[in-house]
Write a structure and sequence with these properties.
The chain is an alpha/beta fold. It contains twelve helices and twelve strands. The protein binds pyridoxal-5'-phosphate. Pyridoxal-5'-phosphate binds at residues 42, 94-96, 121, 165, 169, 196, 198, 226, 228, 234, 239.
Length: 372
């Protein structure tokens, strides 16, 4: 019996809360600024699809009703968009929820473990910890590529999930699909490989990087995708997993019935139709990525190639400020980027690709702070 009515399971003690990008309101208030630009959370620089916004507005008057359990219309639309069977789709309140469901559905507390890259998206580790599941962290190679051999060696008889992020966050690195494929084939029978493709849509061409089009060859692979980035619905919360049918069906049968709300259902159905918005978002991100990479390199920064809607950079050796100092200075001037200390990369910063004006502002402020 617990000793007190407010005692929690051991896993919840000494929990580090999710360290998210700072919010615009927070910074506006703290520094008394009129305008704050946020390039910290990889949000869509164009906002959200106008069709999705209109659809959500219309749906508002129905917000008093429960959605149809499991939102089958949206499941069908996502399945169609991804060209996969409906029975393989698991929707979630953000892909965060899908990650959480996968861990809870697959891992036995105190017995099983998961294997991840270090650094990686922190939700894999935090939800494993919540569930009393050990996380085995495998360092990236010095050039931020994946150490597949070490990942494989970290897998043991109690490993139930391996998470990889392609393109990776926060580095932007994306392994060729041949490597992912070879790794999936090399994994022992009981392990599910979860490939988080939150940023895959931003790659110039998906075929050289994504295993999803050939998922039927890989009964041990699940994929994660999201409406948060390309479709601009981060605050409305919708992500999805595409996974082997028996697993998807077991999860769908047991999960909470209403975690995808009626507003985001309407918004996402419209967003999937909004090809103009998707096109414009991709163009903005790809152009901005090239622009920022070129200008940052021109300023002497180190910028690994990124296939995502953000880039990571390190200041030149000659810089008179450190990465955390630069972050603070930009903050005071109303520009939020992401320091990477929580990823164990304290010399590095991450900036989301913004609109052209936002990108130019970032470069201008950076130049001024570096006194170049
Ligand atoms: C942004 C992101 C997601 C998406 O999270 P949502 O819960 O869908 O908003 C998933 N994985 C990674 C690695 C991300 O960076």
């Amino acid at each position: 019996m617990p000793k007190s009515p407010v005692e929690v399971i051991n896993a919840l003690n000494a929990f580090e809360p999710y360290s998210s990008g700072l919010s615009i309101d927070e910074i506006r208030e703290k520094y008394g600024l009129d305008r704050v630009v946020k390039l910290a959370s990889n949000e869509n620089p164009l906002g959200l699809s106008p069709l999705a916004e209109e659809a959500m507005r219309r749906e508002c008057s129905l917000a008093f009703r429960y959605v149809q359990s499991g939102t089958p219309r949206l499941v069908r639309a996502v399945a169609e968009a991804c060209r996969v069977p409906e029975q393989t789709v698991v929707l979630g309140n953000g892909s965060d929820e899908v990650i959480d469901l996968l861990i809870r559905a697959r891992c036995k507390s105190g017995v099983d473990n998961i294997v991840v890259n270090n650094p990686c998206f922190s939700i894999y580790c935090s939800q494993a910890k919540f569930c009393g599941v050990e996380t085995r962290r495998v360092p990236l190679k010095p050039d931020f590529s994946f150490d597949w051999g070490a990942l494989l060696r970290a897998v043991d008889g109690n490993t139930s999930l391996v998470f990889v992020t392609t393109p990776d966050n926060p580095t932007g690195y994306c392994p060729p699909v041949t490597e992912v494929e070879a790794f999936a084939r090399a994994l022992p029978g009981g392990v599910l490989l979860v490939v988080d493709e939150a940023y895959m849509a931003f790659a110039e061409d998906v075929a050289p990087y994504s295993l999803l089009p050939r998922r039927h060859e890989f009964p041990n692979v699940a994929f994660i995708r999201t409406f948060s980035k390309l479709h601009g619905l981060a605050g409305a919360r919708l992500g999805y997993g595409i996974m082997p049918e028996p697993l998807a069906q077991k999860i769908c049968g047991a999960r909470l019935p209403f975690s995808v709300n009626c507003l985001v259902e309407a918004g996402a159905l419209a967003a999937l139709q909004d090809v103009d918005f998707v096109r414009a978002s991709l163009d903005t991100v790809r152009e901005g990525r090239e622009y920022l990479t070129t200008l940052l390199c021109g300023l002497g920064c180190t910028v690994p190639d990124s296939l995502a809607n953000f880039i990571m950079f390190r200041l030149p050796e000659s810089a008179t400020v450190t990465a955390p100092e630069l972050f603070e200075r930009l903050l005071r001037r109303g520009l939020i980027i992401r320091p990477l200390k929580s990823y164990g990369l304290s010399e590095w910063l991450r900036v989301s690709i913004g609109s052209h004006d936002e990108n130019r502002l970032f470069i201008k402020l950076l130049q001024e702070e570096l006194e170049l």
